[in-house]
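Practice problem 4.
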């Protein structure tokens, strides 16, 4: 039988691994008697761990939530994951830098040497964008307020800062607070977003969390709505790619296929979310998407190589449309062509 201290740590680790544990199963896993399990549970309770006795045919135990946070037990991979998360969290969330640094120091101090070495080799450096486009950080209190409203299914009221002050005088125009039914708090491209049903506009909207200032109190509770497509990841991806996300695919609304007079190895280094197929040492097939057909044609033109359009016809029309615009620009002629397609609004707010 292992020593009492080691046995208590093993028991605590098991209680943290799942919600309920039958007493007989704990005794079997620890290779001790049910009576010893009961004594060890009492010792953990004396140390401040809120362990409940679960009624049932077999009886059992559950590690409950308490008013104070007791010492926790992590395995090696959990400790490393926690340390990494503490370093990364400060790159997108404001107001937690000091607390995250203290937590990381606490975790590191109790780590064995082999784990401290792994953590010390990982140093995360947040590279800020230029002053013209700084990386937005959202206050942790805002995330907590949004998350609480999502969890409680309560109408959320908030002020929403526009991207630029409305009005020609630059002083801005007062806008009433937004009223939404919050459904999901998500991250995309290093930013936090709220996916919600806008009660005043009667449509789904995606709001940047760093531009949200919650108002108290929250509104009444509501019944959750079915998100178009049923998948939040596909819905958000579709919105940012110019579609409404209702089909659940999250794909680009415009996708075309071309053959480029460039090696596949060269093209693949400058594309993401695309399919590149080698057709020989100097040619490749490229399938790519965009929010509009002119946008897709312009992206393909950046390769500065021979292009053969495989399809669809809308992509050929977009190339012809841009060719006229570029020709007029080269001759300083006024461009009178109408837009080939109406741009799609990627994110409604």
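Answer key:
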């Amino acid at each position: 039988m292992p020593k009492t201290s080691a046995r208590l740590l093993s028991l605590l680790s098991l209680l943290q691994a799942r919600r309920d544990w039958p007493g007989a199963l704990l005794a079997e896993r620890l290779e001790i008697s049910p009576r010893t399990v009961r004594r060890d549970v009492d010792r953990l309770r004396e140390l401040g761990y809120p362990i409940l006795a679960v009624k049932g045919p077999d009886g059992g135990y559950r590690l409950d939530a308490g008013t104070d946070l007791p010492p926790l037990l992590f395995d090696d991979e959990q400790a490393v994951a926690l340390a990494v998360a503490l370093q990364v969290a400060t790159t997108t969330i404001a107001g937690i830098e000091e607390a995250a640094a203290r937590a990381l120091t606490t975790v590191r101090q109790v780590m064995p040497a082999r784990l401290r070495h792994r953590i010390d080799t990982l140093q995360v450096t947040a590279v800020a964008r230029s002053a013209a486009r700084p990386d937005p950080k959202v206050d942790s209190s805002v995330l907590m307020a949004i998350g609480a409203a999502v969890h409680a299914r309560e109408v959320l009221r908030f002020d929403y800062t526009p991207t630029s002050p409305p009005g020609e005088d630059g002083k801005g125009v007062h806008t009433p607070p937004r009223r939404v039914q919050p459904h999901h708090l998500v991250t995309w491209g290093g930013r936090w977003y709220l996916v919600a049903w806008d009660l005043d506009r009667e449509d789904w909207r995606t709001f940047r969390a760093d531009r949200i200032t919650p108002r108290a109190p929250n509104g009444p509770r509501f019944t959750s709505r079915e998100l178009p497509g049923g998948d939040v990841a596909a819905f958000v991806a579709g919105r940012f790619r110019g579609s409404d996300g209702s089909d659940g695919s999250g794909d680009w609304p415009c996708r075309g296929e071309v053959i480029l007079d460039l090696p596949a190895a060269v093209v693949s280094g400058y594309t993401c979310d695309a399919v590149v197929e080698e057709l020989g040492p100097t040619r490749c097939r490229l399938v790519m998407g965009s929010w509009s057909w002119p946008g897709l044609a312009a992206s393909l033109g950046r390769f500065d190589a021979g292009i053969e359009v495989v399809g669809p016809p809308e992509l050929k029309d977009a190339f012809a449309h841009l060719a006229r615009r570029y020709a007029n620009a080269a001759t300083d002629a006024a461009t009178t062509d109408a837009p080939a397609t109406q741009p799609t609004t990627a994110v409604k707010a």
